[in-house]
Amino acid sequence: MLDKNGIAKRIAQEVKDGYYVNLGIGIPTLVANYVRDDIQVEFQSENGILGMGPFPTEANVDADLINAGKQTITARKGASFFDSAMSFGMIRGQHVDLTILGAMEVAQNGNIANWKIPGKMVKGMGGAMDLVGSAKNIIVAMMHTNRAGQSKLLKECSLPLTGVKCVTKIVTNLAVLEIVDGKFKLLERAPGINIEEIKKATEGDLLIPENVTEMKM
Amino acid sequence: MIIKKVNNVQEALTGVKDSMTFMLGGFGLCGIPENSINELVNLNVKDITCISNNAGVDDFGLGLLLKKKQIKKMISSYVGENAEFERQMLSGELEVDLVPQGTLAERCRAAQHGIPAFFTPAGYGTEVAEGKEVRDFNGKPHIMETAFHADFAFIKAWKGDEAGNLIFKGTARNFNPVMCGAAKITVVEVEELVKPGELDPNFVHVPGVFVQRIFEGKNYEKRIEQRTTKEA
Fold it and tell me: Which residues form the signal peptide (chain A) (predicted)?
């Protein structure tokens, strides 16, 4: 089974040379730590930077330079700053190649819910609806089950939706899956995890090909 | 040139009244108009509607107005950093309209540019789309969103000149440029106010035509929400 860093490490393999990538808050933020350094990749943060770099040293902290998670960051060589309308122009206009975000629930038709638990938690959707409404390539990074042990890969989402039929791939602590013909197609198993364990943790319909290899970490 | 300079925040906020709608720049606490917010607290205007990406934190930014119950309605995309906000919202004291962040920015930009409405795919098939016109473009459904209307926009820029030309710094730019000129009166506070001619026109982010009043702000705190660092 993978931990959060393991999920991020596996997703980093999906980041290809020449990609502009938007990383959501949480596990997705960790992906930047594992991207190969022999390829050209730029990270976009929707609050207005392309070319986001690592956290600053204490001496270089700048209150005017943060990411969408409100963390202090640095700008890489060749970075640029822009306003929020232009930032979402990049996203809506499909100039960003890959979006990686977290979710509370994903349905087998590609629907995603990640912004609201009615009556309990309402933090808002932030940029998630704009991202999932337009991005061509959306990877969800999440744990396979919630804290109560219930599956987060469902036939239908029970929480208010963030977007419809938009998720392409899901990487969890147990597996890599793809949305194909309204089902979860199992692509890879996490190290040490067997198919029965994945079946048990998945409420939605699973398509299980003959050979499901273990993730190469 | 046309001079937009006013002497202080009091003069800049002349005409602010109860029940008005305000736009406020900033993302989290980054690039918020600290001086104008503090003056709104002093003026104690009530029943206001605020259009702002976030709602501050409990003891800073828009959180100060929330604490004094000056805000009737918030229009935001993300409000997760503020416990008092969540309490007022869940108890029904505060009206909240949650808007996808890109749509929020574009509804400001539309107001700035004289565009009454536009279509976006963001929010299609979700609660956000309820009651809104849906149209297909290029085989994909989009929902109609309208431009915002506001009485005042409160903006924070890094440098500005007395003619209202503005330059922003880092990610403190965010919503600030798209709110300039999107309200009846745009009030800008800057860290450094210079004479016309001292800013290179090639590097002006927002031209002064979108600005009605500009002043040099004081005592910026620039609080950091998540101070994340690495070893030197």
Answer: none
